[in-house]
Specification:
Strand content: 15-25%
Structural class: alpha/beta
Helix content: 25-40%
CATH topology: UDP-N-acetylmuramoyl-L-alanine:D-glutamate ligase
Shape: globular
CATH class: Alpha Beta
Largest sheet: 9 strands, mixed
Distance between the termini: 28 Å
Radius of gyration: 18 Å
CATH superfamily: Ribokinase
Number of helices: 11
Bound molecules: adenosine-5'-diphosphate
């Protein structure tokens, strides 16, 4: 039902007493390794919530790549189209976390994610034509995103993260665009100081049939057919907001694949994302279907 075309990274996380400046060596704590990458995170988010998910992506022919593929498979994601290439090593994100403030600094080495080319996506054309939902992010090449958008036979969800400019021709083929506030600001080329500015930007953005702007603790703003609806956040006490956006996008994909109207799907996505902030880590914090249903019933 859901096809994800996107990135897989191995996240390498080191706690540090402070972030190094150029030329400095900092002694950190013990290294932790976790599966990550926006594509894989969103695929896992959707699978945990009961979606039938297949992912298209690239890893290297190395141990990290094997690990990421089997982590996906363990979550019930069809990883048979995540192929190993010897053109580049598996993507990695090197993440330093300040022990006191929790602030991150991150170096992403995309590796194999940047050798996923349009022809590889075209090779999976049948999957994309038949999928009810095609879910995309921007940790792969722009031309690869464009190829997937063109081939998709169902509803196209694009999470334009990390931010970059997007051709209007691509935006016109997107059904639901899911930026956060900063990504929307990049797309419209202006600062968005308050909710009014966000709503105006979402309403006037040309192309997507609907825009859902994620607003952190303020929830999400849905803009469809010129009408704007603020869907409040599910109240929680967050401990780690890593991958909240990924939880949101995965949940939105599942609920839309099940035929739920967009405003209902946004409410469920807000709740799933809020739950993901109450546990540390990216993929470990993603809620299950039972956890989401319980929170929605409250
Ligand atoms: P990103 O993490 O991609 O920057 P946001 O910060 O907008 O995206 O968060 C994505 C979604 O996660 C929000 O739309 C909201 O549903 C949920 N969320 C994030 N922070 C909180 C919070 N403090 N309380 C409740 N929900 C939150």
């Amino acid at each position: 039902d859901i096809a994800v075309v996107g990135s897989l990274n191995l996240d390498l996380v080191v706690p540090v007493p402070h972030h190094p400046v150029p030329g400095e060596t900092v002694l950190g704590g013990d290294l932790a390794e976790h599966p990550g990458g926006k594509g894989a995170n969103q695929a896992v988010a959707a699978a945990r919530l009961g979606g039938r998910v297949a992912m298209v992506g690239r890893v290297g022919t190395d141990a990290a790549g094997e690990r990421l593929r089997s982590a996906l498979a363990r979550e019930g994601v069809d990883a048979s189209r995540v192929r190993a290439t010897d053109e580049a090593p598996t993507g990695r994100a090197m993440i330093a976390v300040d022990e006191l403030t929790g602030e991150n600094s991150i170096i992403v080495s995309p590796g194999a994610n940047s050798v996923l080319h349009p022809e590889h996506v075209a090779f999976e054309g049948t999957l994309l034509r038949d999928a009810r939902i095609t879910l995309l992010q921007q940790e792969v090449l722009p031309e690869t995103v464009e190829a997937a958008v063109r081939l998709a036979g169902g509803t196209v969800l694009l999470n334009p993260a990390p931010a970059r400019e997007l051709a209007e021709s691509v935006l016109h083929m997107v059904d639901v665009l899911v930026p956060n506030r900063e990504e929307l600001a990049v797309l419209v080329g202006q600062a968005l100081p308050d909710l009014h500015a966000v709503a105006d930007a979402a309403r006037t953005l040309r192309g997507p049939a609907a825009v859902v702007v994620t607003l952190g603790q303020d929830g999400a703003l849905l803009c469809e057919d010129g009408a704007v609806l603020l869907v409040p956040a599910h109240p929680v006490t967050p401990v780690d907001t890593t991958a909240a956006g990924d939880a949101f996008c995965g949940a939105l994909a599942v609920r839309l694949a099940e035929g739920e109207p967009l405003h209902e799907a946004v409410r469920a996505a807000n709740t799933a994302a809020a739950l993901s902030t109450t546990l540390p880590g990216a993929q470990p914090s993603l809620p299950t279907r039972a956890e989401l249903d319980k929170a929605l019933a409250r």
